[in-house]
Amino acid sequence: MRRIAVTTAGGDAPGMNACLRAVVRSAIYYGLEVVGFEEGYWGLIKDKKRRMDLRSVSGIISWGGTILRTRRCEEIKTKKGIEQAVAVLKKNRISGLITIGGDGAFRGGIELYQASKIPLVGIPASIDNDIYGTEDTVGFDTAVNTALASIQKIRDTAFSHERIFIIEVMGRERGFIALAVGLACGAEIILLPEIKYSLTKITQELEKGKKSGKKSSIIVMAEGAGASYAIAHQIKDVTGYEVRVSVIGYVQRGGSPTARSVNLANLFGHQAVKVLTRTKRAKMVGWQGGRVVVLPLEYSARHRKEIDRNLYRLAQILAI
Ligand code: F6P
Predict the structure, then answer these.
(1) For ligand 1, is residue 102 a contact (CB within 6 Å)?
(2) What average pLDDT is seen over the chain?
(3) C-alpha to C-alpha distance for 255 and 258, rounded to whole angstroms
(4) Atom 13 of ligand 1, residue of closest alpha carbon
(5) I need a labelling partner for 224 at 20 to 30 A (CA). Which of 46, 52, 94, 153 fits?
(6) What is the Å distance from ligand 1's center to 128 Cα?
(7) Ligand 1 centroid to 171 CA: how many Å?
(8) Residue 272: pLDDT over 70
């Protein structure tokens, strides 16, 4: 293996740059050349690339975002798009590809490998932490801490005005961010797409809290769990309590990565290069039971990662 390529695909996540740095430096350490495809699979299809050397990744370890930029690419889901991408890989004599991204990037990676048989390793980097095969993804810890920092500020005004706040966090159709944030901020209620809830149950919990002397309450809600403003109106109509909504939004996607996100990126980036020099197949790296693991990439597409309901139950117990 002489020349490998790397790309960051799909939604960006804090720590992607640390990943790029770990991939490029490890590859050069093991005597490989590295090409970076810009703007994810779209740039791969368009052959938008740059040579990566030790200085290309200097000083970026603590930067949010990705220096290669990224975009969501519908073309990679088409036969024509895959053929174009494979042709670009072959034209550039790429003998291994590392794709850094979320479940969309992984699904594209599986198609690319099946069409090209060019060895490929996926590095799980997404704030959603919804990838099967890994307990943690690059960027998740940072997104959770970013949301937490906002909620700690909202708690002050919620207390001062004795209000209920619904805090909407990202996560697409999944509740991993909301569960981690809800537990870490001591939310009274956590609403997840994976767990059914009713307005009656919500208002009963809030009234129980009021009766036990709570001045304010925080409801952390995953964006995929429903319409936060509509629920706010319904709670006000039923209880008469003052309810406000705060949507944390895209701040969760940016900012300097935490040490946890950076060190996961360091470990994953280095391991991905080592795996790529040894494998003929499509693999992913992941974090399980306190260590880096290597799995077939298609595992991530074939299985659904489940929410830890014990954590959800714990959050309920601690909110009394
Ligand atoms: O996958 C990461 C994520 O931030 C999700 O949490 C969110 O639902 C989605 O991307 C937003 O997508 P876009 O960046 O295309 O607006």
Answers:
(1) yes
(2) 97
(3) 9
(4) 11
(5) 153
(6) 8
(7) 7
(8) yes
**Sheet containing strand 49-52, strands side by side:** 49-52, 33-37, 3-9, 96-101, 120-124, 282-288, 291-296
User: From the CB of 177, is ligand 1 less than 6 Å away?
Assistant: no
Q: What is the pLDDT of residue 53?
A: 97
Q: Are strands 120-124 and 282-288 parallel, antiparallel or unpaired?
A: parallel
103 is catalytic: no
Cα 149 to averaged position of ligand 1 atoms, centre (Å): 20
CB neighbour class for 148 (10 Å; exposed up to 12, middle 13-18, buried from 19): middle
155 lines ligand 1 (CB under 6 A): no
Sign of the CA dihedral with 72 first, then 78, 80, and 84 last: positive
* Averaged pLDDT, 179-185: 98
Query: CA-CA distance, 259 to 273, in Å (whole number)?
Result: 21
**Per annotation, catalytic residue among 12, 53, 103, 128:** 128
For the full predicted model, state whether its pTM sits above 0.85.
Answer: yes
